[in-house]
Amino acid sequence: MKNERLIIGRLSIVGRALVRGRTAFNVLIFVLVCIFFINMTISIGYNLFFQKELEEITGIRNVKVVGNILARSTEALMAVGEVSTLRRAVSEAALEHDLEYCRIVLPDGGVLADSDPKKITVLELPESWNKASLPYTEAVEGQCAMLSFPLDVPGRGGALLQIAGRFSRPSVKDVESQTAQMTIACLALVVMLLVHHHVRPRLKAIDTIHQALQDTNSTQTDIAALEIDPRLGTEALAWNKIIRQTQGQQVRFAIEHVRESIQEKSKVNVALGAACDALPYGLIVVGERMGVDYANGAAASLLRTNVEELHNQEITQFVTNERVIEAIRDAAESPLYKRTIVEVKQDGSSSSSVLRFMIRPIRQENLGVAVLMIEDITQQKMAEEARSGFLASAAHELRTPLTNIRLCAETALEDTEHNSIETLKFLNIINEESHRLERTVSGILSVAEVEAGSFTLMRDDVRLDVLLKQVKADHEMHAKEKQIQFEFDILPKLPILHGDRDKILLALHNLIGNALKYTPEKNSVSVKTVLEKGQISIAVSDTGIGMSREDAEKVFDKFYRAGDKRVKEVTGSGLGLAIARQVIRQHGGDITVETELNKGSTFTLTLPVITEEVVA
């Protein structure tokens, strides 16, 4: 205020001098001063309005600059699934730029990230979501600028970045300051008139800056649009320099964020590649055109090549087995998720090996169509062959003495005159146990014959309706003893199959016998036939104890019995289902299972129909 009074005093001295020396000029100055004093109120109001508008524009632009930079970095973080880094970046941005709020909202309204962690409703980033088109919006409410930026996350979907920041309004002190400035400006009018021709170009530059701010499109995001003509003077040059510096800072900030995102992603990829190379199993990612997108060191070693030769080459150059190639093609074409396992014998110069190929489809964009896992099971196969050979040899050695024991027991049972009651009881036990051992030995021999390739089928016409009636008659007594509801739903017309009657009958006995054994009293067992698509299906369903998913995957393995204590209470060798599946697969069919623990199981036997002949 002291400086202002000094300026006013000096201007008064100059005014008195002018009055004494130049009356006409003083009158002109007086008229001009009056005009400016009259206009002072209007000018103050205008300046306040201009300042308010400038504060709003500046506030919105500042928030918009922060939002544009944050939008790009959040898109990159969401694309790589870095949710924790994304939330930290949102919180830090809100704190650093003093934002009212900052959040990322998905199209369904879920909040993925928020400056206030309590408002987060989506804990994990979904793999993908609706790619709805979300508009850019901005609004001003009081002293708060609220903007919404659409996000486009590659491979996932759209989202919305919502931020809000406050800006200051002109205060009473601002009004007093502006009033004083306008007063000084009016009192200094004499001086301004004298230097008007020197100041005019600079005023033009300032007016141009004002006009540029007003004419800028509300959706404009390029700050370079605020530059003005440099020929307007030093003010224009200074303004353009500030604009370029601000733009450079924005670019550097964006580049730094992108560089940090790329570095983090590169670190993750390097760590993932090192982990995959450390696996003892071969891992290959196959692309859309059967090209190898990725292969680890174990895969190259098992395929007897190197990683450089595998990369970007067609998988058919290294894997020639038709079943494996067909499984990879199915993974690319079929929308269903399934796993295919193929065992391939690989001959070498010094020795041969057995490789197990596991093919799984990939249902994520930009990650190929299938993943191929390779395992060397040579030692496992050798151990299985040695075990099968031992079992076959042992079974052959046991069959003869068991037959003799059974014959002797049957002969002794026939001589009832010389046997006491106790003797007959023991002979019956010997006879039953020898039968049971003989069935177990026969099962072991059947499995060994199938695995050795010496298992043969005695093919002939098989009347399936007759077989089912025979199986029903054989098991009806057992069902009545346990008070089990035993139902058969047989089609009125069944095809005549071409196969080994005894082997198919053995498989049916195993399936139905197991259903009755593992179904508690007063429950139900049903058998249903279905004929469709060139094959006959026989479904054996029960309401028994069922199995867990882990047991269901191993139930067809030799000698496997579930860990359920209720299963251990029932006698069995663990060979029945293994033999049944091997027998049906020899006929070109299969046996599958659907089960749920404590709710029952359904074993489905399928056989191909070769002839069209039907019987009534």
Describe the structure.
The chain has 4 domains: 2-194, Beta-Lactamase (2-Layer Sandwich), CATH 3.30.450; 279-372, Beta-Lactamase, CATH 3.30.450.20; 382-452; 460-615, Heat Shock Protein 90, CATH 3.30.565. The protein has 616 residues and is of the alpha+beta class. The chain contains 17 helices and 18 strands. Helix 11 packs antiparallel against helix 12 (421-452). The strands form 4 sheets. Strands 2-1-5-4-3 form a 5-stranded antiparallel sheet. A 5-stranded antiparallel sheet has the order 7-6-10-9-8, sandwiched between helices. Strands 12-14-15-17-16 form a 5-stranded mixed sheet, with helices on one face. The chain is elongated and about 155 Å long. A hairpin with a 2-residue loop joins strand 14 and strand 15 (535-542). Residues 1-23 and 611-616 have low confidence and may be disordered. The termini are far apart.
CATH A-level architecture of the largest domain? 2-Layer Sandwich
Largest sheet: 5 strands, antiparallel
Number of DSSP helical runs: 17
Terminal Cα span: 119 Å
Overall shape: it is elongated
* CATH structural fold name of the largest domain: Beta-Lactamase
Annotated CATH homologous superfamily of the largest domain = PAS domain
Strand content: 15-25%
- Tell me roughly what share of residues is in helical segments: 40-55%
